[in-house]
Automatic annotation (TrEMBL), chain A:
PANTHER family linked: BRANCHED-CHAIN AMINO ACID TRANSPORT SYSTEM PERMEASE PROTEIN LIVH (PTHR11795), HIGH-AFFINITY BRANCHED-CHAIN AMINO ACID TRANSPORT SYSTEM PERMEASE PROTEIN LIVH (PTHR11795:SF371)
Topology term for the membrane: Multi-pass membrane protein
Subcellular location per the Swiss-Prot or TrEMBL entry: Cell membrane
Highest taxon of the lineage: Bacteria
Name of this chain's protein: Branched-chain amino acid ABC transporter permease
Record's keyword annotation contains Transmembrane helix: yes
Segments traversing the membrane: 6-32, 44-61, 67-92, 104-125, 145-175, 204-224, 230-250, 257-275, 281-300
Amino acid sequence: MSLQEFWDYLVLGVMLGSLYAVIAIGYTLVYGVLQLINFAHSEVFMLGAYGSLIVLQLVSPGDNPSVMASIGFVALAMAGSALFGGVTAYGLEKVAYRPLRRRGAPRLIFLITAIGASFFLYNLAGKLFGRDPLPLPEMYENREIFSLFGAGVNITQLLQFATAVVMMVLLDLVVNRTKLGMGIRAVAQDAEVAGLMGVNIDKVVSRTFIIGGVLGGVAGFLFANLNQVSYTMGFIPGITAFAAAVVGGIGNIRGAMFGGVLIGIVETMTVPLLGDEWRSVSAMVVLILVLMFRPMGILGERVGRAA
Amino acid sequence: MLNKTIVKLAIPLAVGALALTGCGSDSGGDGDAVKIAFQGPLSGDNVALGENMQNGVKLAIDQANAKGDLDFTLEYVPGDDQGLPDKATATAQKIIDDESVLAVVGPAFSGPTNTASPLYAESGLVTVSPSATNPNLTDEANGFTSFLRAVPNDNQQGAGMATYYAKKVQAKKVYLIDDKTDYGVGLATVAEKNLKDAGIEVVKKSVPQKTPDYSATAKDVVNSKVDALIYAGYYQDAAPFAKKLAEAGYKGAAISGDGTNDMKFVELAGDASENWFLTCPCTDATVEAGTKKFAEDYQKAFGRAPGTYSAESYDAANMIIEEIRKAGGDIDRETLRDALKKASYKGLTKTFSFEANGEFKGTDVYLYQVKGGKIGYQGNINELVG
Amino acid sequence: MSTVDTSQNLTPSAAAKLRRTAWYRTERYTRLWAMIALGLLLALVTGEQGNTRDIFYSITHTLTGVNLWVCLGATVGVWALREFAATPIKGAVSAARGSAAAAAGGPVGSLRARFQADKRLRLGAYAVLLVLVLVVPSGLERSWQTVLVDQIAIFALLAIGLNVVIGWAGLLDLGFFAFFAVGAYSTAFWTGRLPVEPPVVLNNFWVIPVAVLTCLVCGVLLGAPTLRLRGDYLAIVTLGFHEIIYLVAKNADGITGGPQGARLIPDFSIDFAGIEYTWSIKPLPYWYLLVFFIVLVIILFSRLEHSRVGRAWTAIREDEIAAAANGVNTVQFKLMAFAIGASTSGVAGVIFTSKYGYINPEVFPLLQSILILAYVIFGGMGSIPGVLIGTAILVWLPEALKDWVDPSDRYMYLGALLVVMMIYRPQGVWPSRRRQRELKLAEEGSGDADATSEPAGGKN
């Protein structure tokens, strides 16, 4: 691999990784407050993609929209995906997890519920929207806009990366600077004591799900923009992003960002080195190696303490 | 409290139902109806393909019934194997147990064909697969005596692509991708061998289905400085890949097989699909009058355009119906099997006849090219390379 | 965040205003909104199939059709009944329950007591059950025999194995099906059906011990470095392990045959002391074989459950640190659970492969590991009859649903069933008594119900 190729793949890896990071945050946030692997997060992601598709089909951008129109379409699609993602996550929490939480059910029960909800949601989406993949209508003409270390970056990639960064910065601000963020951290540290201190736990959990859902939904839009929309699109990125969250240290927001980018780079670098078919394997090997030597993930610990 | 009662009642009920479905479902007794079954993925990840095929079969049956020249009614029986080998045996057995099923269209995939065919062979129930293309299936050692393949196997198309690149495009170096499915790997293996025999350098890679991001692969294609590319896989993945290839600035020739030869490929990939070559063992499905009518009827019946293997399934079902009609509806499974083995039927897509081992007779592969958002017919590959 | 300090500067009337809830937020009406939402969802679930040509087709159809009103009527009706006629219904139900209990409670209770007291009676009941299990399937339609053998029995064997790992030792294993794949590919290898030649070609019966050994080794190999991880970390690592096994099977074409798989794998056969028999594609002979293995495994495992090993597992599951402090070698016992579970899986893999005669990687997707876990929990983890029932129901259900609903919707209903079941009966269909007690303790806030509730990263 020449140096130029290395830069090419590195840039691609970071772009893909930023997407994984956004999904991973959804897992990590929920884990932080509930210590629950939300297996249904991949369906939140999938429904987010459908949200943007629906909005775009309603406004139907024609050929060659102007720059301003393009920005508008992107914003609309993003809003659609955020809405779908947020609503799905909220509904999930309300219907599937809250009754369990009220009863203090063990986490294994949550896990099976999450799996059941995931089955339900993706099959429902397949039923409602058809089971063939669909393209996202073109919102702009994708072309290379600048180059980074000689590697070209196009609009789609920039959009993906920039959105991811903006969302992560916003999230960091929310968690660290707002009252809601304080609540999230408090619940993550010790839900019982937080409740005694006057934090409305139900509200915090529910809003955490919404935040995670919005992030997941927008990630779904970005992913659809990169690839396409289909009802089974959630599974593979979901598992990968979950692995990324664990590599970074589950429950830890910055860990999820770091893990996402790392896994993205590892996967992309596998393509020229070993071949495309081994990319998931290399991601999983990295996961296992990291956990063998750092059982708490690279950055370790949880929302409450680390973020 | 109420919940607990419900559950307490529900368990014995569920257990009872479990026993009942086992013993009590003797629904195969309605005398004069002749049933044709379809086995393929009607749930799970590959359901889109299964639905295409199921609709083709349904349309054939409905049209035959509507014509009114049959002295029996045809019925359709769905058999869902999810495209998985481990689910196929129960599905096949269920079809076999229904005495009035005389023939099966399917199994759709090669894996399920492998596990279900011994059962079909034992029962003498003929299966006509419009899409299982793994060359091994007609190996005599399998003993799949009631398997008929109504589609040329992977060998033909793989060879066709290689010939076209060698003789017409005169490629020096070809990037060959399979999608890690049975279909894709089979096609790619044959293509690789033929390309190498023609003295062409081959870069062979595998890119599994549903790869989240094709950018890196596209970059790799460009970096390999090849002048032609073969994608052996289905349109669902060929489309995003084609997009990324266009973005990465790939300028060479690209070709794919019948798994991609579908308008949905063009719809999904948009401009990026322009100039892609597509092969198919089928002749053009939109040019001839008969096929045009098929497309219209299909659209009317199911509210969508026919997809991959729709027309082939339609043909297979019609071929079966034709043989049953010849016998006036009164025919047993074995006789029908033997009749079909010897049959020669001219369908929409091609003329069907079979070798002794159930292999499709005929080696013609046709070339298409995407031009201006349409899949344009180019002609028989053997004639094109002249 | 509810604000704690706002009430300070408020006049009493303003405070009263704050305390009052609008009518639509009272509990009764929140329930109504929930029921309406449920009705809407129900209408969508039972509505028409959509298509990609027009993605709004299904939704618009549902929202303008009759079905919506039927569903809404049903759910709102339930709400109305519950809100306004709750007392009479409750009375009727409790009366019915009372009479039912009076009628059935006595004899059933005493029967159970006698059962527990009398060992011979218990053995007799087991014998009757076994005879039923052996005889009844021969009366079924052959397609149900096939479901019973090819799916239910195979999965039952697997579920019993997973039950050891998760139900008894409390280790969350999301990659259990990978061992099944190892067993299956061992069979293909030792019967000479993979691209790589085995040193000797073995009869399928001889493959069983070899496959068990291979799975044991794999179990230990996976377990040794990862068992110090706990709970969720173990889950993701085992999940990763499964993904790796699956992808290796798929990608290492030269060794495993790749996506085209291995075919022509022979059936079981005996040629011993004058008895010659070959199992064929007929389901019943395989049924007897599977019942033999299942019974064998059940006997072995239930002895294990009440031995020192079983008690050690319980101790680890309920409180690992306390167990370690009391001198239980936790790593050794955890490894043992892993290896025993894995080897059961290996047996299932061998039988499966011989029965089908063909495998490809698509038989072993990650989803299967998740499904099998659902079977165990659904049935009631820790209890062997529960696990068997759970497997039977959840494997049978999708097959039976084929006749009632659009096949492509089956797994949607399965998913919904899982969610509902976990909300209303988390202990499973037939829970073990110990497990029920643990769940209750956990709900009351004392004690752990599984080893997964440790803090992330473990307590080492």
